[in-house]
Amino acid sequence: MSALTSAPDREGHFGPYGGRFVPETLVHPLQELETEYDRARQDPRFQEEFHYYLREFCGRPTSLYYAERLTRELGGARIYLKREDLLHTGAHKINNAIGQILLARRMGKNRIIAETGAGQHGVATATVSAMFGLQCVVYMGAVDCERQALNVYRMKMLGAEVVPVTAGQKTLKEAINEAMRDWVTNVRSTHYILGTVYGAHPYPMMVRNFQRVIGDEARSQILEKTGRLPDLLIACVGGGSNAIGLFYPFLEDTSVRMIGVEAGGEGIQPNKHAARFQGGSLGVLQGTRSFLLQDDQGQIQLTHSVSAGLDYAAVGPEHAWLRDQGRVDYTYATDDQALAAFQRLARSEGIIPALESAHAAAEVIQQAPRMRPDQVIIMNLSGRGDKDVAQTARLLKL
Ligand SMILES: *Cc1c(COP(=O)(O)O)cnc(C)c1O
Fold first, then answer.
1. Which of the residues 33, 79, 322, 388 has the least number of beta carbons within 10 Å of its own beta carbon?
2. Is the CB of 264 under 6 A from ligand 1?
């Protein structure tokens, strides 16, 4: 198992996945980033600063909340929620944004760019940019700008420039293309804050390490509360950063099962979902090799999910590798299951989750009743649902 947690190798490979597939002009900046990150990681002052802002600005540690009513209703395992929804800006994305902006400052970059799907990563990046007084440009698909208007306004309030991307499907994939194009052009002055465990090395490793604070906290909190390790961890998987953040510190605990939940959309048929492990295959997209939804010609397929944050054709390379090794199981929840779980969490616990997190809750609803009352589930509640309330009200005809 120790081989698992020391990944990736020096070139950023997680087994056959990962690596660095970029234009020539980005090779040097990625090396520079890797070198600076390695230095920062070993620098106690950097770690201290990182944890200072997580605590004082973001509100860490987040609580590990015993969901008593949901537990009683489901009649099985005890359910604990890791409350990333309580963080400043409303999701786990801020953990990574803080880490990367501190790195950008160390590297003397004065301009920040980012891509965003649902807008949560854009808001987190605009927030930390404002906090440190750095210029910020966020690329966002034009369709997503419409779907997530609230987050567009938030970014603008924070002083960021939001660039709507009108190419292709006008969603996250095209926004990433534009951000990479910007980075190639402005690489001397600019750091690209990528929002998940995806892209070229060192991003998947670096973002994981910034997000592992979720699992580190959860591990000591559950030991304190119950005197034992959990039996099951459940998290939703878009690129995979909140899931790996929770899972990583438990990987060597062989008694702990883990389930990642992808977006099943309208069901597992071409173009109707974003569950890469259901019908996906090996390929290279946007800097890394991983599992993708593609057709026979290698064209990236259209994806669909009710949740913009899970609606992407590829998954982080470390997840593909953990799946190959049987360490983590991956399943999916459909739009309908996620919407039902969204309502259930709101009414049973008084917590309106992000639609992304509702996918994890849908799996909790499946798993808990099959388990014994002395067993324990930790679900990562990756974000709050304010951004999704209008859309959900429409879908549920409230
Ligand atoms: C962005 C987002 C996700 C999906 O991204 P991961 O990198 O897979 O975590 C999940 N939940 C929320 C609340 C998000 O904002």
1. 33
2. no
Q: From ligand 1's centre to the CA of 172, what distance in Å?
A: 13
Give the distance (Å) from ligand 1 centre to CA of residue 241.
Answer: 7
d(C-alpha 302, C-alpha 293), whole Å: 8
CA distance 22 to 342: 39
Q: 4-18, 83-97, 170-184, 337-351: which range is least confident on average? A: 4-18
Reported pTM:
0.98
Q: Answer whether residue 307 shows pLDDT above 90.
A: yes
Q: How far is the CA of 361 from the centre of ligand 1 (A)?
A: 14
How far apart CA 355 and CA 393 sit, in angstroms, is: 12
Write down the catalytic residue from 129, 290, 357, 382. 382
Q: Which of 115, 217, 262, 349 is catalytic?
A: 115
Residue 298's closest CA among 278, 315, 310, 284?
284
Torsion angles phi and psi, residue 262, rounded to 5: -95, 175
Choose one of 84, 203, 242, 286 to mutate for the ligand 1 pocket test, by most ligand atoms within 8 angstroms of C-beta.
Answer: 242
- pLDDT surpassing 50 at residue 1: no
pLDDT band at 398 (very low <50, low <70, confident <90, very high): confident
Model confidence over 202-214: pLDDT tens digits? 999 999 999 999 9
Q: Is 93 a catalytic residue?
A: yes
- 307 catalytically annotated: no
Active-site annotation holder among 34, 36, 93, 174: 93
Question: pLDDT value at position 235?
Answer: 99
The confidence score (pLDDT) of residue 379 equals 99
179 against 4, higher pLDDT: 179
How far, in Å, CA of 114 to CA of 121, rounded? 8
Tell me, what's the pLDDT at 2? 47
Output the 3-class SS for 261-292.
EEEEECCCCCCCCECCCCCCEEEEECCEEEEE
